[in-house]
Amino acid sequence: MALLCQGEREALAELVRRYQNDIFRFCLHYMREYESARELAQETFIRVFAARGRFDPCRRFRPWVLCIARNLCLNELKRKKAVPMESLEDYASTARDESGEILRSVADSPDRQAMAAERREFLMEALGTLDEEAREIVMLRFYHRLPARDIAEAVGSTEGAVRTRLHRILKSLRHSFGEWADDL
Asked: What is the pTM of this model?
C-alpha cells in the first residue's frame, strides 16, 4: 500500500493478487450472490485506488480494505432492501462436492465424521439464534480469524466494544446450549 500511495500503479495489481480471494469471500458472505460479490470485490479495489491518498500508513491494510468492502456490501444491501446474511449452512456449502456431501479427509473415521456432523449441526443452530450483528462479529472472529482490533476497524467500533460484545455473545451461547458449552 505504501508503494501505491507513492504512485506506483503496479502496487495495486499486487494488492489485488494478495487480497482478491479474501475480499470476494467476504463480499459473498454478505451478498449471497456470486456475481454481486464479484462486482463488489472489484469495486472495493477501485475504491482502494481512489482512496490511496487518504490511507493512513500507521493502520494495517487488511482491516482497512475489509471496512471498505463491508460498507459497499451494506450499501448494496440497503439499496436492494436488505437481504439477510446467509446462514452458516449456505456458507459451508462451498466445502461440498457435487453430490452435496461435505468434503472430508480420508483419515477421518466414521465415528469422527458423525461427531463432526453433529457438531456442525449444533453450531449452525447456535449461530442461527444470533442477531445479524452478533453473527457478523462471530464470523469475522472465528471464520475470517480477525483479531478484535481488526474487527473493530471493519465494523466501525472500538476494540473494547468488540471484545465485550464477543464475550457476551459466547457467554449467552454457552448459557443457552449448556450441555454443548465446551464446543463453543
From this structure: 0.56
